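Final report, closing paragraph on structural work. Over the funding period we assembled a curated collection of sequence-structure pairs, and we close with a single example.
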Amino acid sequence: MGYFPRQGTMSPQSPPPTFIPPKPSVSYIVDCLYQNTYVWLINGSQFWFYPTRVEYGEVSGCIFPKNQQLK
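Its predicted structure, as stored:
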């Protein structure tokens, strides 16, 4: 992953979908900036994530706990 300058603190404007999408064979988180993104971790955890920054291998954003909606 490369360096991507901070583009503000854009937050999600709507909750993530209620379904789990099919798992892709390959994906790059940088392609998912400012979009609701479903994440599968190697430890088996999975959740909706809204990435807002990718920098030097670090990713920042909002995680949606199961069944949580925006207020």
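Strands lie at 37-40, 46-55, 58-64. The chain is about 0% helix and 30% strand. We thank the funder for supporting this effort.
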